[in-house]
Specification:
- This protein has 6 helices and 13 strands.
- The protein has about 270 residues and is α/β, with parallel strands linked by helices.
- The strands form 5 sheets. The chain has a 4-stranded mixed beta sheet.
- Strand 5 and strand 6 form a beta hairpin.
- The longest helix has 14 residues, at about 110-120.
- The protein starts with 5 loop residues before the first strand and ends in a 27-residue tail after the last helix.
Length: about 270
């Protein structure tokens, strides 16, 4: 990890006679690992039991299985559920007028779901964008309460080639090109096409979430990618991003979601009813 290398350890030849077992180590500088095709490498297995979420102080864990080492983050307390409400309040700027981070007792799933249901009902929310990875139980609860046409699920996909935002009918979710769409949202904020609340009121903790994000060049993908430092959060920014994407179902903004260089489809909201 400290050398910036990714390694895989495999048994090359088992012990035989007076020879010891021989192992082979393959290493690369690549930061990402991709399956050849999901159908070849992934299969569904029946399971009935508990599912656990690992939490460590740093937010990062290293695991090893069958000689393969994985380094992953997004564990522990470095993530929050944030809800943002936005609308067009006159003019062409999409206004984020209310943002809330769930803390304390609201972190309990039943309490949090009840609070979200109340917020969506009180503000008469027309359409809601959710993080696909935010929890099946929560998204399923919201869909059952408000219907699939009002609750939309979005999932980031850094290798997406079909466009910036693409509807996947089999999984009933939108796949989002993370880097491209994040760049568009940052640019829209700079151009004042997205309006945020008064900065003094918004800065802590919501504005700080946005400032925690940094960009760096990925040599493997030859693209700029976004990240945030260990121990910091960026949940508010992604909440705003999902809020904007959901609004585009009813109010498309081609001036914000710039076309991709490969000519891919940028947004197809009509696929909602497939």
């Amino acid at each position: 990890i400290r050398l910036g290398l990714r390694g895989v350890v495999r048994l090359f030849a088992p012990a035989e006679g007076n020879r010891k077992a021989r192992w082979r180590v393959n290493w690369s500088r690549g930061r990402d690992f991709y399956y050849n095709t999901p159908k070849q490498r992934i299969e569904t297995c029946p399971y009935n039991g508990n599912v656990y979420c690992c939490k460590v102080p740093s937010g990062y864990i290293v695991t090893e299985r069958n000689g393969c080492v994985a380094y992953q983050g997004n564990t522990g307390e470095q993530s929050h559920t944030v809800i943002s409400l936005g609308a067009y309040l006159g003019g062409n700027s999409f206004t984020i007028f209310w943002t809330h981070r769930f803390t304390g007792r609201d972190l309990e799933p039943p309490v949090q779901l009840d609070r979200i249901n109340t917020i969506l009902s009180q503000f008469n929310v027309k359409i809601c964008g959710c993080d696909y990875g935010g929890g099946f139980d929560r998204n399923d609860n919201l869909i059952r309460a408000f219907g699939p046409d009002k609750i939309l699920k979005y999932q980031y996909n850094s290798q997406q080639k079909k466009g910036k935002v693409y509807w996947e009918p089999k999984l009933r979710r939108f796949a989002v090109h993370r880097t491209e769409v994040m760049s568009d949202v940052f640019n829209a904020i700079v151009r004042k096409q997205i309006s945020l609340p008064n900065w003094e009121d918004f800065y802590e903790p919501f504005g700080q979430d946005c400032l925690n994000i940094f960009s760096e060049y990925n040599e493997q993908t030859r693209m700029i990618q976004y990240g945030h430092a260990p121990g910091s959060t960026d949940d508010t920014f992604h909440s705003i991003l999902y809020c904007l994407l959901a609004s585009m179902i009813k109010y498309p903004r081609p001036d914000i979601m710039a076309p991709m260089k490969d000519g891919g489809v940028d947004y197809e909201p009509r696929r909602l009813h497939d």
